[in-house]
């Protein structure tokens, strides 16, 4: 059954710190990717906005305190652009993984230019075109969630279709938030199956339509969580809807994937590979 | 003016590749943090799902092709867990930043355990409790967007308040998507200012309320994009609303920040530091 939950991993006595002069999101994302290579759970502490020497000394103190109370040295992932701040952390009692210094110095040599050492640069993007696109895309995706609006579909980068609760909404929002992709989504409902046609506003945009499907068993589970015991959630109805939706997508030549065992990150990445919206290269 | 757009950076002749056995999101997030230390734009290509030797050779070929056509060696950020795949990329003509191998080997030594070398482990989380929490939080935040529902506010981790278009919706969705935080949001509107009271369902939950404010000038700009020339967007009305909202938040003892020059990542990080929802440590 796809909804089984993995047993919890054994817990390590170690504390992991993510130290950053910005939000710490990069340090944390990266640290997670490395730590999931180990079958252990760690106590995790994020220390964002460490952008002065005082705050760096504070962070070092917390790392040393964890060393004393855990009896093992903490693991520290840091993205501190200024080397004086990074030095303070390196001298603490943690095992220091310095993500910026490790790669920036060799890149300076390769590119033949000095880095700017600008604190928080990668997240200080409120005024950039890219950031505006992301906010605009979030608003677009919300306004075009669940077939709410047919206006301005020409501006959509991607139009997701699929039965109710197949994962369209979180995927649309993720595409918007992470990539600035304007993603509309339309449910395929029994009315469409009876008419044997896509929702009427969609055919002109076939090139950017992408389908999500799901196994009837998983769909029924998800729908029972929302409306226990309903016909809507029954396995018979889920089988009917999924079957009809897949037939329709085949007939219309719509590319699709099954969301059953995929995370929204994996679904979004696959969609971008398939649809190739103009503004980016994949 | 906070809405000025930075001039575009000079474009480098180099191509940057993000190569991953999973979605490539970690490689890309991390690569961006490093590359923004340089005042250059790069052509960027993401190669996700490189999980077989064949695909690794394909990736190496694309890297070599870019070398030939650019006349400079590409920069390659990779998160390939299996060392045979990573080896293929290392032997290509790119400058290889191997994010996993660089840090996993020292960690194996420090922890005294071997890594699992599981491909895509960090994004293969559909069945985990954490992933389910994220999806549930997205649904909660959507259902409680813009004061739509007063039901089940006890289950919210955070309740954002602020005038219309102060950034509540994207912040709520980001908190849900990135952290599995259930974030409701309520607009503060002229009715509330006239009654001189918070929306009536909120006072029992004061401990988890957080306010967003914004400068009247920026607010007026944003509102004009939505409803040009309206009273709603006029600078006089924006001054009135922002002033009343700030007075109310002060009187009610609500913590708040200005979203004017902050990204949703920065706003979300600050909120988590202030509100400290139960389930995580910050």
From TrEMBL, chains A, B:
Belongs to the pyruvate, phosphate/water dikinase regulatory protein family. PSRP subfamily. ADP binds at residues 162-169. Keywords: Kinase, Nucleotide-binding, Serine/threonine-protein kinase, Transferase. GO terms for molecular function: ADP binding; ATP binding; phosphotransferase activity, phosphate group as acceptor; protein serine/threonine kinase activity. It comes from Massilia glaciei. This is Putative phosphoenolpyruvate synthase regulatory protein. HAMAP family: PSRP (MF_01062). The keyword Kinase applies. It holds the Pfam family Kinase-PPPase. It catalyses: [pyruvate, water dikinase] + ADP = [pyruvate, water dikinase]-phosphate + AMP + H(+); [pyruvate, water dikinase]-phosphate + phosphate + H(+) = [pyruvate, water dikinase] + diphosphate. PANTHER family: PYRUVATE, PHOSPHATE DIKINASE REGULATORY PROTEIN 1, CHLOROPLASTIC (PTHR31756:SF3). Its EC number is 2.7.11.33, 2.7.4.28. Bifunctional serine/threonine kinase and phosphorylase involved in the regulation of the phosphoenolpyruvate synthase (PEPS) by catalyzing its phosphorylation/dephosphorylation. The keyword Transmembrane helix does not apply. It is an enzyme of class 2 (transferase).
């Amino acid at each position: 059954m796809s909804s089984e939950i993995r047993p919890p991993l054994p817990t390590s006595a170690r504390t992991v710190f993510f130290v950053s002069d910005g939000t710490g999101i990069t340090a944390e994302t990266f640290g997670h990717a490395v730590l999931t290579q180990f079958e252990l759970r760690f106590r995790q502490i994020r220390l964002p906005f460490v952008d002065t020497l005082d705050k760096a000394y504070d962070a070092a103190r917390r790392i040393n305190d964890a060393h004393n109370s855990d009896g093992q040295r903490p693991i520290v992932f840091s993205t501190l652009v200024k080397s004086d701040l990074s030095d303070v952390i390196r001298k603490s009692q943690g095992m220091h993984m310095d993500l910026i210094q490790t790669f920036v110095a060799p890149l300076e040599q390769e590119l033949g230019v000095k880095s700017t050492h600008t604190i928080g640069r990668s997240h200080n993007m409120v005024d950039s075109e890219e950031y505006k696109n992301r906010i605009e895309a979030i608003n677009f995706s919300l306004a075009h969630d669940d077939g709410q609006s047919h206006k301005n579909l020409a501006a959509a980068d991607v139009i997701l279709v699929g039965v109710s609760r197949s994962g369209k909404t979180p995927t649309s929002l993720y595409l918007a938030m992470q990539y600035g992709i304007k993603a509309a989504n339309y449910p395929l409902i029994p009315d469409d199956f009876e008419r044997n046609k896509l929702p009427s506003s969609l055919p002109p945009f076939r090139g950017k339509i992408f389908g999500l499907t799901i196994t009837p068993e998983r769909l029924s589970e998800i729908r029972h969580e929302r409306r226990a015991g309903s016909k809507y959630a029954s396995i018979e109805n889920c089988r009917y809807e999924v079957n009809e939706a897949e037939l329709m997508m085949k007939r219309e030549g719509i590319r699709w994937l099954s969301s059953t065992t995929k995370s929204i990150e994996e679904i979004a990445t696959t969609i971008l590979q398939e649809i190739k919206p103009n503004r980016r290269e994949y």
